[in-house]
Amino acid sequence: MGKYGGCLWSRRCFRYFTYVDCRYGFQGTEPVIAAMQERLDHGVFGYSYICSKCKDAVRSWLSSRHGWETENDWMLFHHGVVPAIATVIETFTKVGDNILITTPVYPPFFNVPGHQSRNIVECQLREDNGNYSIDFEAFEKSLQQDVKVFILCNPHNPAGVIWTEEELRTILRLCKQYDVLILSDEIHADIVLPGFNHIPLAKLAEEEGGKVITCVAPTKTFNLAGVQAAIMITKEEELRNALQQNAFAHGQMELNAFAASSLVSAYTECEPWLENLLEIISTNMDYVIDTLPAAVPGISIQKPHSTYLLWIDYRGTGLSEEEMMDRLLNKGRLALEPGTKYGEAGRGFLRMNVATPLAIVKEGVERFIKAMQ
User: Fold this and answer.
1) In angstroms, rounded to a whole number, what is the distance separating the alpha carbons of residues 149 and 116?
2) Residues 319-367: tens digit of each pLDDT
């Protein structure tokens, strides 16, 4: 939480603050818990490896859920999407190279390259009343700054945008033109609200060409972040070999036994749970959107296409970020994430996570209203 709070948000501190976050949200699915228990009961925890069952589960999920046909050989496994981003940056760039991001965006997109002494080229998204799109004139000018890697958030976090096919094809064409590798973070791809569909970038790259590495994971979808499992997927053998060599250089093991069991169970047994979750998230969002702006003048919220996050626009209140955070924390006892955590382009916004029971969402909204009275 940076300067606005350092609490670990355990159940013990919940009586003082509400943080609407999946870490306090829904318990893991019963099939996943059963799979982990079965693995625990096995009782032998030596070195493990990725079997074909894991890859088959990923391939089948991507095919049925997103219409993306992959091959088992295209997959490499990692301990999380953020570590995978770090690996890609380290493998395909060197100190001082330029990395392109579109802001506001998930903080590791600029933190991880920054810690590796890479330079961040920031292209702000075009924003209109909380609706975001890519300014492709500015995007192309950014690519011309000798950019080596573009990190795409697809769907976008925190704005919840699902990029259109036309936008994704334009990204591919421009990055191909300037020989820029695309790292497509698609960890939120499964959390798509009713009426929308996610388009994997690499699926379009089959026609458009270009170099793409896609990162996916079951961790956001099924609340398994602590299990640590992610998949890097690329059709390009040369890219896979380079990533594999990086893993060897760091002595990186594959997924642990519990992560592998969880991944297979999530992707083969838990789709009905996910469908129910999406309905709950949509309902929770509707409640906040219907209630909060009506009670607090100057608040505006656009319902996102994807993710379990609301991007709350408070610019109409006239409050600075410092004033808003002070009111929420000290008067409302409510901790939300400040927009500048996602870059300066996020100033005037707050991020609220609604992947939690409606009763907690309602309490969060009540505390927000109290803070603004």
Assistant:
1) 14
2) 999 999 999 999 999 999 999 999 999 999 999 999 999 999 999 999 9
State the DSSP string of 97-146: -EEEEEES--THHHHHHHHTTPEEEEEEPEEETTEEE--HHHHHHHHTTT
- The 3-state secondary structure of 74-92, one letter per residue: HEEEECCHHHHHHHHHHHH
Q: Are strands 147-153 and 349-353 parallel, antiparallel or unpaired?
A: unpaired
220: Cβ–Cβ under 8 A, 6 or more apart, which residues?
A: 22, 187, 188, 190, 191
Residue 66 CA to residue 216 CA, distance in Å, equals 12
Q: With contact defined as beta carbons under 8 Å apart, do 259 and 45 qualify?
A: no
Alpha-carbon distance 239 to 262, whole Å?
A: 27
CA distance 141 to 296: 40
Give 231's strand partners: 77, 216
Evaluate whether 266 touches 29 at the Cβ level (below 8 Å): yes
pTM: 0.91
